[in-house]
Amino acid sequence: ETPSPSERAERLASVAAMIYLVFNEGYSAVGEDDGRAQLCDEAIRLARLLLRLFQTEPEIMGLTALMLLQHARTAARFDDQGQAILLEDQDRGRWNRSWINEGVALIEKAMRHRTPGPYQLQAAIAALHAQALRFEDTDWGQIDLLYGALETIQPSPVVTLNRAVAVSKVRGPEAALAMIEPLAERLSGYFYFHGLKGNLLMQLDRRAEAREAFNQAIAKAATAAEAAHIRQHLDKLSDATLAK
Length: 244
Known about the structure:
Elements: H1 5-27, H2 38-53, H3 58-71, H4 97-111, H5 118-131, H6 140-153, H7 157-170, H8 173-180, H9 191-203, H10 207-220, H11 224-243
Helix pairs in contact: 1-2, 1-3, 2-3, 3-4, 3-5, 4-5, 5-6, 6-7, 7-8, 8-9, 9-10, 9-11, 10-11
């Protein structure tokens, strides 16, 4: 039986969440040769179908925009050896500007409804990254504010962890470290927590503690690419120690 319009609306959040889970499975793929990579395209296709059914729904616009803006960076996220390339080091000339323009237009349209939701806020953050022609041009202050809004409507230790990156750019690594330290117990098994902690400690020249955090990150890494990325930080620590 075809669901009624009211029933479709009730199911919308669950369907959107499943589409984003499909997208994230593809986004975690290492390179285009990984069979999961095409799941990103499929998730975007499904989101566009959903947007046809709910043409004025801001959160579906936000979801579609978010996936387009994230997927636009795919060609620049890994090197030829499958090693992850940080956002700050990516060749922005390889980003898909067509998808970025579509995503930005969608999130701007969604925001005009003035009913912000989690997908819209995440898409707005992704849009600020995508629109910065250089990493140095990133509007970290606005990103901090958007993450603050996201913490309010969808509180999560992972959201706070992500916000801490923006805080480190705006108020420095010490402020960001103070923000994430209360998350240690809840995120003890999370690779990115230990990676960010190590990075902040390294910026503060607390090398021994940074090395310990990076070693914990390697132990929690889910992929070889994640572990290799952390080893690069450990190599930098070793080089800095030898230089002294």
